[in-house]
Amino acid sequence: MLFARYCWGSRFVVKHKERGTDDKRIAEHKNALRRSLLARRRELGACNRAAVDAAIEANVLALAEFADAEVLLTYLDFGPEVRTHGIIQAAWAASKVVALPYCVPGTRDMRWYRITSFDGLVRSEYGVEEPVPCVEREQRLNENQHMLALVPGLSFDPNGYRLGYGGGYYDTFLPRFGGVSIGLCRGSSLSEDLRGEGLVDEHDVPVQLVVTDAECYTCGCHERPCVDGNCS
């Protein structure tokens, strides 16, 4: 009995070490890919990024999901991210509610607060402009409204999986979100199959649509309403 327990313990240690080695290898792969994608963003240049982002914006605005949405939950672009300012302004023009995320310090949680202009935002420790938390302006996720969320990422694949920045905020948000989620991705940053590369964890939830400058990918079992534009 003692021998059996010792052997079980030895196997457990070996498996634990192997799992730790695999986790380290995957983390290194992710970080290497993040560095490559960030460099690719910079190399694209501001003028090219602006043209590509304008095409992404047009494709988002042509979606029936955007037209149907009453509430838009969106990140505010920072640095060379896919721009969202124009989409936000179009949402305001269509009398939609717009809410930005506030990253709760010391957690991986985000809370959402409604904004009606870009004034009054404060820069977070990550350099991102955020709304000031205010109970009266908080947008709850469980309210009975048609919600659309624009999700940032360094890369997406046509199946809706994403490679983020490593903070875990959207990994926490997506499983709790009951609306339609859209990943915004330049075609030059689109990956073929992140799961196939071993970069998707078991708990990762894909977005339902991925919109690029050239295409719109329907992911998983999301059922598309009628839509204008070139969407698959």
N-to-C span: 60 Å
Total count of helical runs of at least 4 residues: 5
CATH topology: Rossmann fold
Helix residue percentage? 25-40%
In the sheet with the most strands, the strands line up as: 6-3-2-1-7-10-11-12
List low-confidence stretches: 1-19, 226-232
What is the element string, with H for helices and E for strands?
A: HHHEHEEEEEEEEHEEE
Protein structure class: alpha/beta
Q: The biggest beta sheet, please?
A: 8 strands, mixed
CATH architecture tag: 3-Layer(aba) Sandwich
The overall pLDDT, averaged over residues, is 85
| CATH class call | Alpha Beta
**What is the domain tally?**
1
CATH superfamily: NagB/RpiA/CoA transferase-like
The total strand number stands at: 12
The outline comes out as: globular
What gyration radius follows from the Cα positions, in whole Å? Answer: 20 Å
Characterize this entry briefly.
By secondary structure, this protein is of the alpha/beta class. 34% of the residues lie in helices and 19% in strands. Strands 6-3-2-1-7-10-11-12 form an 8-stranded mixed sheet. The chain has a two-stranded antiparallel sheet with strand order 4-5. The protein has a two-stranded antiparallel sheet with strand order 8-9.
Summary keywords:
globular; eight-stranded mixed beta sheet; alpha/beta; disordered N terminus; 232 residues; 5 helices; two-stranded antiparallel sheet; Rossmann fold
